[in-house]
Design goal:
Strand content: 15-25%
Number of helices: 5
Number of domains: 3
Number of strands: 9
Shape: globular
Structural class: alpha+beta
Amino acid sequence: MKKISLFAVLAFGVLLLTGCGYKSGYEPENLLPYEDQLDAVQKAVDSFKENSSGLLPIKTRDMETDQYIKYPIDFKKIVPAYLGKAPANSYEAGGIYQYVLMDVEENPTVKLVDLRIADTLRDINFRKGINGFGPIAETIAEGVYKLDYKKMGYKSELSVQSPYSDTQLPLVATGDGKVYVDYSIELSRLLQETKAEVKPGEDIRFLLTDNFAIVPAYSLPYTVNENNEPVFMIAK
């Protein structure tokens, strides 16, 4: 009887995901950043680099592009010569992750970008208005603002699912109209858990890239204040 009940729960879960509008390729097995998939892509990148006189299998991006999405992996350059196929959870295979490289100069390392976050930001940018600036509800820090979602047509404040935990992360905007994810909650947790030694003025987002496969894309730089709490680090 317990087995039947378990099957019913699992079946309901699949139907629920389908009803919530998951796109083709967004099945549960394609949502997780499996370690073996990362390892396989890393080996393929390393082999390509070794056989290409140091070149990397990446797509060309503007130099001003956010450092966390600046070097997306071009699977056409490594499939099938170095990798059988693109990972099931990759964007190219219908998944939710963009595979990117970090530390391309010293130690090219495969990381992931959660594209569901980009979907939310894209919707906000669509609603910001013809002038490209959203209405401001309040000032969070110097140069960082909270948007007025009701004036933008939303029924409630928007947030995104953290790629690191079950936490919902708020969104913030800067004076130039750009919208970012606020990772303060996760950074605060890591500062407490890891007891990392960081200094005011130092960008502490490395805590996320060092501890997780997923990078803090679409974020502002953070440092710490005198109480070792994460704060925005906006260039003046």
